[in-house]
Amino acid sequence: VQLVESGGGLVQPGGSLKLSCAASGFPFSSYAMRWYRQAPGKGRELVAQISNTGGNSNYADSVKDRFTISRDNAKDTAYLQMNNLQLEDTAVYYCNALRGFFNYWGQGTQVTVSS
């Protein structure tokens, strides 16, 4: 089982990034997908989640209307489009696959928002 995040980096406030999470080793289309983030000195925060079919999604209030979660089950990949990034969005972003008792994590990708 593997989840590999990519797409992080350094961006100025107001900028955009798109994170990808490539999955392998499990039936991706049967799993809900989540993006979490962890800022320095803080706990891990659920940012967004999407159902296994992609028909339902939810967002933390802090990112609503700025971030969009999506998935492509044909490519076994989940995405997080992040627009209008703010300083407080700086964190390591992790993707997570969840189905019942099965719970898989990626290694994380750093997103730094700085002027």
Give a written overview of the molecule.
Helix content is 0%, strand content 55%. Strands 2, 4, 5, 6, 9, 10 and 11 form a seven-stranded mixed β-sheet that branches. A four-stranded antiparallel β-sheet has the order 1-3-8-7, with no helix packed on it. The chain has strands spanning 2-6, 9-11, 17-24, 32-38, 44-50, 57-59, 67-72, 77-82, 91-99, 102-105, 109-113. The mean pLDDT is 97. The protein is globular, with a radius of gyration of 13 Å. A hairpin with a 6-residue loop joins strand 5 (44-50) and strand 6.
In short:
The chain has 115 residues and is mostly beta strands. It contains no helices and eleven strands.
Topology summary:
Layout: E1 2-6, E2 9-11, E3 17-24, E4 32-38, E5 44-50, E6 57-59, E7 67-72, E8 77-82, E9 91-99, E10 102-105, E11 109-113
Parallel strand pairs: 2-11
Antiparallel strand pairs: 1-3, 3-8, 4-5, 4-9, 5-6, 7-8, 9-10, 9-11
